[in-house]
């Protein structure tokens, strides 16, 4: 079994910064793709950023130039640095990872989410 746990959310004013962390634990052989999603109140969950196993990142248009996704494979930890935050960035942020387990299975796992609130 694999668990993902996010942290780092909070309340900031417009223009502020937050750094989200996602720690993976359990029966992990390797973490392949890592994704950060956001779900605003009353809206569908949307992909904000993705980083492949080779470290190449990709961002939603809304995140480009402001957010930075990274990973520390040795620590099974993934990060989302969010700068120049806007009220429309408010929502619950979820970490998602494609994990190959020690038993050889390959599954996607979700964290429980962390709340980010940006006030104007």
Backbone CA Rg: 14 Å
Count of helical segments?
0
In what range is the share of β-strand residues? Answer: over 45%
The pLDDT mean sits at: 97
Distance between the termini: 41 Å
What are the secondary-structure elements, in order, as H or E?
EEEEEEEEEEE
Instruction: Please state the overall shape, judged from the principal axes of the Cα atoms.
Output: elongated
Extract low-pLDDT stretches. none
Largest sheet: 7 strands, mixed
From the helix content, strand content and strand pairing, which structural class follows? mainly beta
Number of strands: 11
Q: What helical percentage do the residues reach?
A: under 10%
List the helices and strands and how they pair.
Blueprint: E1 2-7, E2 10-13, E3 18-26, E4 28-39, E5 46-51, E6 57-59, E7 67-72, E8 77-82, E9 91-101, E10 106-110, E11 114-119
Parallel strand pairs: 2-11
Antiparallel strand pairs: 1-3, 3-8, 4-5, 4-9, 5-6, 7-8, 9-10, 9-11
């Amino acid at each position: 079994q694999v668990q993902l746990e996010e942290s780092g959310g909070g309340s900031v004013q417009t223009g502020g910064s937050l750094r989200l962390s996602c720690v993976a634990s359990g029966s992990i052989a390797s973490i392949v793709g890592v994704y950060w999603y956001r779900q605003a109140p009353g809206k569908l969950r949307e992909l904000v950023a993705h980083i492949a196993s080779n470290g190449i990142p990709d961002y939603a248009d809304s995140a480009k130039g402001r957010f930075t996704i990274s990973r520390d494979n040795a620590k099974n930890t993934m990060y989302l640095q969010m700068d120049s935050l806007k009220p429309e960035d408010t929502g619950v942020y979820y970490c998602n990872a494609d994990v190959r387990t020690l038993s050889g299975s390959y599954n996607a796992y979700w964290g429980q989410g962390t709340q980010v609130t940006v006030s104007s």
